[in-house]
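Schema walk-through. Below, the input block comes first and the output block second. Nothing else is stored per chain. Lengths vary across the set, and this one has 154 residues.
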Amino acid sequence: MAKRLKSLLLSTTDSPPFWDLEEMGQDLSAMYKWNDLDVSGTSIAEGARLNFSRLEREHGFDYFEKDVICDCIRAFDRFVQLEDWNEVFQDKSLVYKKYSPSSKGKNWFLTSKYSDKQIDKFRCVNPKRCFGFRDDGIFYVLRMERDHSVSDNG
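--- output ---
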């Protein structure tokens, strides 16, 4: 039995994982750039579990310093490398939770086209936060917060 198991395990090492195959993901020979940063081989280039297609430019990374952007990219990589959503919810560095603006505070999404969505947030690097919503296992990033002023109210 052990010999059979060893043979099976060795046979799986002959081919690369499916996510490294060009037809299954990003072109491994290509360079993916975002704001002049090389994001090749990261979750940003692949889009696994995180989707930036709905990021509102006026609430994006334009005013973030390069080192803060790098910290955010590391948080995004951590986000997608966790095994499942339960691990995301329990991760102490991400502090993923529901965005719940207080009755006194301003609801940042009340007048947006996403007012019907349950908005969640997670920490990239203190005090930076990432806001978005989940749909069919994907977190759609809508806005980045620079100074925690929105998070203070929800």
